[in-house]
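WARN no homologs supplied; continuing
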Amino acid sequence: MAGDGVGENAGIVERLALDEVVDVDGFRAFLPVAAGRFLDSFGTIRVRAEGGSVRCRVETGRAQSNVSDNVHGGFILGYVDQVMFCALLAQDRLPRGGAVTLRAGMDFIGAAKAGLPIDAVVEIIGETGRMIFLRGLIEQAGVTIGSFEGTLRKVKWAGAT
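OK structure emitted
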């Protein structure tokens, strides 16, 4: 039924994609669902499969900084939530109906300097019929900034198989 949200979400996986264009560093851009959504606040997230893990990279600047000119922890936490989905997509493991975040946890080890890109190296560590478990590291210029883990729940939208 139009307007109930179900029809709008039924094809969500088709709207999430990685760009077919591969840049010089082997990254592909994560394409947002639609302009004007929360994902836009991260700019372009670039994604590259590396064996059993996925590396995601995002640029940072003043808009992502705190008063110490470091990347704001809230930005990093939001980034973690996004890269879990990027990893699934890059490994062709995003469920047909999509997924939602049940839990995301982060341990900060050091500060990330604004103005330099930050990487998330994400690994899918397990999957059940309804859950996907991930973990990873946040890095900047080869230095580990933090570690994270998360749990996603697979969703079956109306019309999904």
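Residues 73-90 form the longest helix (18 residues).
OK
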